[in-house]
């Protein structure tokens, strides 16, 4: 029993560290790649708030792949008339990190 509780504690601690690392990496990457010039976590700027993006795509199986492609290639029409420009400075791995972070916003 004691061993099982210890294992559960380790799993929970690992999950918390992973969430914290994702939060730090995602926000740092969003700042470094200039995403924050048009987006904010909780409020609409030029583009939608990240929490609104997370709410819109919650539960969609293909959301990560779809949004990672939009980060790199840009897009238009989903959030209104202002298009999101392409971001060729963001590679595929960075786009996936950014999208996972965006989708984790509440």
Q: What distance lies between the first and last C-alpha atoms, to the nearest angstrom? A: 35 Å
Q: Find the structural class using helix and strand composition.
A: mainly alpha
| Known CATH architecture | Orthogonal Bundle
Percent helix: 55-70%
Tell me the major beta sheet.
none
User: In CATH's first tier, which class applies?
Assistant: Mainly Alpha
Give the percentage of residues in beta strands: under 5%
Report mean pLDDT, rounded to a whole number. Answer: 86
Tell me the Rg in angstroms.
16 Å
**Total strand count, please?**
0
- The run of helices and strands is HHHH
Low-confidence stretches: 8-18
List the total number of helices: 4
Q: Which superfamily, in CATH terms, is the homologous superfamily?
A: Cytochrome c-like domain
Counting copies of identical and different chains, the oligomeric state is: single chain
How many independent structural domains?
1
The coarse overall form would be globular
Q: What is the fold-level CATH name, i.e. the topology?
A: Cytochrome Bc1 Complex, Chain D, domain 2
Describe this structure in words.
It is a single chain. The protein has one domain: Cytochrome Bc1 Complex, Chain D, domain 2. Helices cover 58% and strands 0% of the residues. The chain contains four helices and no strands. It has helices at 2-32, 50-57, 63-73, 92-103. Helix 1 (2-32) crosses helix 4 and helix 3 packs across helix 4. The radius of gyration is 16 Å and the shape is globular. Residues 8-18 have low confidence and may be disordered.
């Amino acid at each position: 029993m004691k061993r099982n509780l210890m294992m559960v504690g380790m799993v929970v601690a690992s999950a918390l560290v992973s969430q914290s690392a994702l939060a730090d990496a995602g926000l740092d990457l969003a700042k470094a790649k200039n995403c924050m010039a048009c987006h904010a976590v909780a409020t609409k700027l030029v583009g939608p708030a990240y929490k609104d993006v997370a709410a819109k795509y919650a539960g969609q199986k293909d959301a990560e792949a779809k949004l990672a492609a939009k980060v790199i290639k840009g897009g238009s029409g989903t959030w209104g008339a202002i298009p999101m420009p392409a971001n060729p400075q963001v590679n595929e791995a960075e786009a996936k990190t950014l999208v996972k972070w965006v989708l984790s916003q509440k």
